[in-house]
Amino acid sequence: MLIGGDVQAFICRDAVDMRKSIDGLSYLVEPLLAKSPLSGNLFVFVGRDRSKVKILYWDRTGFALWYKRLSHGRFPSPATLAQRGFTLAELNAWLEGIEIPAVRPHRTVTATRVL
C-alpha cells in the first residue's frame, strides 16, 4: 500500500460509532465531509472517547480501512482540523498526539541558486 504525497486527509468533526466498517463509513463521507469517498483522499473518523481512529480510503481497486486504538490517552480534538483538508505529514503528527494548529512548519524557501 502506497499513498501518494498529493493525497489530502479530511477528518470528521463529529464522533463516529467505531463499530462501523467500510460500508458504513463510506456512506458517511458525503453527508458529513462533503467529499466523494472514491476521490482517493483519506477520511478520518474518531470515536466518541477519542481513543480510536479509523481511516478510510479508496486505492483504485477497492476501499481500505486503517484502524488505530490507543492503549493510553486520547487523540487531539479533531475540531480545528475538520475545518480544512490537511497533509499526510499533518495526519501523522496528529496520530502521534501533536495538536496541529500549535505546530508551525518551517517557512517555504524559494531558492534561485546554491550557496
UniProtKB/TrEMBL annotation:
What single Pfam family name could you report for this chain, choosing any that match? Answer: TnpB_IS66
Q: Which PANTHER family match?
A: BLR8292 PROTEIN, PTHR36455
Protein known as: Transposase
Task: Name the species this protein comes from.
Answer: Cupriavidus numazuensis
